[in-house]
Design brief:
The structure holds 2 protein chains of 2 kinds. Chain A is an alpha+beta fold. Chain A is built from 14 helices and 11 strands. Chain A folds into 2 domains: 171 residues, no CATH class; 208 residues, no CATH class. Chain A is 55% helix and 16% strand. In chain A, a hairpin with a 2-residue loop joins β3 and β4. The radius of gyration of chain A is 33 Å and the shape is rod-shaped. Chain A starts with a helix and ends in a 12-residue tail after the last helix. Chain B is of the alpha/beta class. Chain B is built from 7 helices and 10 strands. In chain B, strands 6-7-8-3-9-10 form a 6-stranded mixed sheet, with helices on both faces. Chain B is globular. The model of chain B has no long low-confidence stretch (mean pLDDT 89). Classes of the chains: A alpha+beta, B alpha/beta. Chains A and B meet through α1, α12 and α13 of A and α1, α2, β6 and α3 of B.
Chain lengths: 405, 223
Amino acid sequence: MSLIKLVLRELFQRSNQLFTSLLAITLGIAVIVGIKNITVYSEKAVSGELDALGANILILPKSASVQNYYSADFQEENIPENYIKALVGSDIKGIDNLSPKLSIPVDIGGYKATLTGILPKNEFKSKAVWQSTLGVFSRPEGCGVQACIPGVTDSVKALARKRVINDLSPNSVLAGADIAGMLKVQEGDSLTVLGSRFLVEAVLPMSGTVDDSRLFAHLHTVQRLTGKDSLLNAIEIVGCCSAISGGLIQKINRLLPDAKVVTIRQIVQTQLNTTLLMKKLSLIMLIIIILVGGAGIANYMFANVHERRREIGILMAMGAIPSFIVRMFLLKGVIIGVAGGVIGYVAGTIMAVVLGPQLAGVPVKPMLSLAFYGISLSIIISLLASIIPAYKATRVDPSIIMQED
Amino acid sequence: MLTLTNIGKRFKKKHGAVDAVHGLTMSVEKGEFISITGPSGSGKSTLLLMLGGMTTPTSGTVKWNDCSLYDMTPTERAAWRETTVGFIFQAFNLIPYLNVRENVGLALNLTGNHPADAEKRIDAILEKVGLTDRQDHLPNELSIGQQQRVALARALVKAPTLILADEPTGNLDRDTAAEVLTILKELNRDGKTVILITHDPSIAQMAKRTIRIVEGRIKQVNS
C-alpha cells in the first residue's frame, strides 16, 4: 500500500474531522479569491473608463498655471514641438496617443473665439466623443477600450470623410458646436480667420467641454499663421490608467524636465485609492486566513496525532522510520491544502461572479490564474500548519502500544 | 544473540523520577523461548520495548549479536526492527481503516522495499492463521480472536527472527489463546526466538526459561 493511499484512507475514515478542518481554509481561500477577482475586474473597469475619457495627461510650459484642466492648453508660453519626438523615441510604455496643440485667441466677425492647431488623426484618437459621433476613427491600439460605434460601417461616405479629416487641408477648419451655432456656419460654409479663408470641413458634435467653442485647423497651418514654427502650447496624452498608477507621470517628468506634466489627478487618485484599499483589504484577509486557516489545520493535526498515537506506535514498531511518519502527516497537510484550495477557488469564483456586479457594479469573469494562487496559498498554509504536529508524531511514546484500549 | 548489560530506564514524573528497570543483565540465545512474568508496573513492558529497539535505556547496553542497538541511528534501528522483530500486543493495534489483507501487507511496505513475493507471503500467512476468507474485512467486522490472528499474521509476514509478544492471549478466550500459543510454539520450533510477557503461570511454563521481574529487577530465573 502506497503512502498516499494510506493517508487518503485515513482521511476518509475520519471525514467529519476532515470537513471541519477544511472549512476554515476553504472559506478563507474563497474570500481571498473572491476579493482578488472582484478587485481585478473593478480595476479593469475603472481603468477602461479612465482611458475612455480621452486625454488624461497634459504637457505644458513650466510656468503654466493649471486652473482648469480642460483649458489648460491655452497658454501664453510655448513648448518645443520636438518634445513629441522625445516622447515617441523614448522607451516609456503606457502612452496610447499624443496630440500636440497650439491655441491662439482670434476674432471672427466680432466674436471672440479660440483657434487651435491640431494633428487631426491624433486629436480624434484622443476624443471618444468625436469618434463615436462622427464615426470616422476608432482607437485601434493601446490600452483603452475600443470605442464602440454601433451601426457605423465603413461606408463610402464615411471612408471619404475619414480621409478628409485625417488629412485636414491647410484651408479647412473643424468648428465646435457652440462656435458654429454662434457664427451660424455649417459644413461646407466659409470663414475668414486671421485674414485667411477657411472651409468648414465639419461641425463637431457637442462635447460639453471648451472644445465646443473652438475652431480647429491643422497644427502646421496655425503655426504658419502665428509665426510659431515648431512650437506648441500643450501636448495632450492618453496615458493608460494602469501606467499612470505605475508612475508614468514621473517618467515623463524625468524625460522632459523643462515641462510641466499634469494629470486628472482626482480621477487617478481615486483609482489609486481604490486599488490601495483593495490591496490592503486583501492583505488583511491574507493575514486572517493564515492565522485562522493555519490554526484550524494545526489544531486538527495535533488532535489527529494525539488520536493516532497507537497507530503511530505500531507503525514504528513495524519498522517505520521517523521520516515516514513525518511524510505521512505532511502529505495529509498537502492533500487538505489542495482540497481547500480547489474548493475555495471554485467557491470564491462563484461568489465573485455572482456578487461582483452587485458589490462593485462590474461584470466579473472567472480567472484561472487565481486557481494557482489560491491552491498554492492553501498548500503553503496547510503544510506550515502540519510541520510541528508531524514532528510531534515522531516523538510519540512507544509504550502506548503496550496499553490496552 | 541478544545481550542486555546493566540496563536501566528512568522516567521523569511530576513528583520525581521513577526507575522502571534497574541494572538488569541477561542474554537471550538464538531459538530460545523465554517468558517474562511479574506484577503490574514491574517493568516488563518497558523491558520488552527496550529489547525491540523502541525505547532508549537510561543506562546500560542492548546488543543484537555484536551491534549495540542504541548506538544505531533511529533510521538504522527502524530498519533492524523491520527485518528482525515481530511485535504482538495484547491490544492487537490493528489499523481500523485498513482491511485484513492491507493490515498484514502494511508491514512489508513501510520502507518502500516492497518484496517481489509480498502477495504470496500475505496469502501464505493468512492461510496459516485461517483468515483467507476474511481478508477483505475491516478489523471491526472480526471477532476478538480473529483480530489477534490478524495481528499475529502482521507480525509474522516479515519472517522475523525475534518475536516479542506482550500478553498476546490477555484478551482471548481459552480456545483462541491456545491457538495463538500453538502458533508461537511452532514458530519457536522453526528456529525463531520468542520472548513472551504474561501474567498467566500456566502459559509461562510453556517457555524453556522463565524470568520473574519485580520492581524492575530480576527476582527469579527458572530453566
